[in-house]
Design goal:
single chain; 346 residues; alpha/beta; TIM Barrel; 7-stranded parallel β-sheet; two-stranded antiparallel ribbon; 10 helices; 13 strands; binds flavin mononucleotide; NADH:flavin oxidoreductase/NADH oxidase N-terminal domain-containing protein; NADP
Length: 346
């Protein structure tokens, strides 16, 4: 056991639309690569149930919106019936503990492995996780189909029992690829100007809102990062434009990733600030220091994280080596609860 320092958000209640949160610590979406053949497995019931708590908001690991949306091994999907059925007992287990559960939906876009190529590679801890095939620009006429995949995935998420969805618009995946000038080299209405580059993201938001209602929709954005080469020369303008445009749809929340986190591996300081976006967005803003704080790695290693913050207890250290392995227990459901730590040390 080790103590890892973190900004501790307050244990105070918060009204998130129709949801009554009893504290402001949100479980951030965490890909765990344990959904064999893209179907959530029964071991995920225990994993999410361990981390569920009364009035706590949790966001699921990213779930693919179609069979072409997937990029990493054994990540779950939400596009077919078998997956929806597999999510149901997981969602039920979170609800049984009084948790509020949103499904994060993604399409990885060019970070995909349609054909295995050697380059480029995505590495975690120096281990090659996945290799990607050369990207292909989507035809303008293909885009409505992808937008529709998000719409259907949102409907499926509701069918599975989720309380809402979070559209993954961050980290260099498809939506971010459209938004960022470093990747987007399109010459149609989805490329060029800031407005054009954000069009796809907003079409997805509109379709999902139309399908399940704005009160159940959040979006995650990361204007500052250049993951998977998705950089932008003016991330603040991009973030503010998105925040302002999102106001029109009255979605439940906007979840921005902090600029300090430039890569998944390391934290480094950047000169950027989320403040202009916080000011521009009229709904709930999720980020450390805002309305709600989403925590990833500490939630992964501390199933009872909000309780530990409440009583100022020491925290379990996370083990990076087991973040993405496929073992159904190790580094997944075997992180100790405070009671068992006390029990062992007594
Ligand atoms: C193992 C792991 C998996 C992640 N998977 C996702 C994901 O599926 N979707 C996403 O938006 N972010 C993902 N992230 C980013 C986290 O949600 C979070 O933003 C990041 O870990 C920073 O927060 P932290 O410092 O509290 O860990 C992942 C991070 C880690 C460490």
């Amino acid at each position: 056991m080790d103590t890892q320092k973190s900004e501790v958000p307050p244990i105070t209640s918060y009204k998130l639309g129709k949801f009554d949160l009893s504290h402001r610590i949100v479980m951030a979406p965490l890909t765990r690569c344990r959904s064999y053949k893209n179907v959530p497995q029964t071991h995920a019931i225990m994993y999410y149930s361990q981390r569920a708590n009364k009035g706590g908001l949790m966001i699921s690991e990213a779930a693919g919106v179609s069979d072409t949306a997937q990029g990493y091994p054994d990540t779950p999907g939400i596009w077919k019936k078998e997956q929806v059925e597999a999510w149901k007992p997981i969602v039920d287990a979170v609800h049984a503990k009084g948790g509020i559960f949103f499904c994060q939906m993604w399409h990885v876009g060019r970070v995909s492995n349609a054909d295995k190529e050697l380059e480029p590679e995505f590495r975690v801890n120096g281990v090659v996780m996945e290799t990607f095939s050369p990207p292909r620009r989507l035809g303008t006429d293909e885009i409505p189909q992808i937008v529709n995949d998000f719409r259907l995935a949102a409907r499926n998420a509701m069918e599975a029992g989720f309380d809402g969805v979070e559209i993954h618009g961050a980290h260099g995946y498809l939506i971010d690829q459209f938004m960022k000038e470093q990747v987007n080299d399109r010459t149609d209405k989805y490329g060029g100007s800031l407005e054009n580059r954000c069009r796809f993201a907003l079409e997805v938001v509109e379709a999902v809102v139309d399908e399940i209602g704005a009160d159940k929709v959040g979006i995650r954005l990361f204007p500052f990062a250049n993951y998977m080469e998705s950089g932008d020369r003016n991330p603040t303008a991009l973030g503010v434009y998105m925040a302002e445009s999102l106001n029109k749809y009255k979605i439940l929340y906007c979840h921005m990733v902090e600029p300090r986190m430039i890569t998944v591996e390391e934290k480094c300081q950047t000169p950027h600030s989320l403040l202009p976006m916080r000011k521009a967005f009229k709904g709930t803003f999720i980020v450390a220091g805002a309305d709600l704080a989403a925590l990833g790695r500490l939630f992964l290693s501390n199933p009872d994280l909000p309780k530990r913050f409440e009583i100022n207890a020491p925290l379990n250290k996370y083990n990076r080596e087991t973040f993405y392995i496929s073992n159904p227990v190790l580094g997944y459901t075997d992180y100790l609860f405070l009671e068992s730590v006390d029990h062992i040390s007594n």
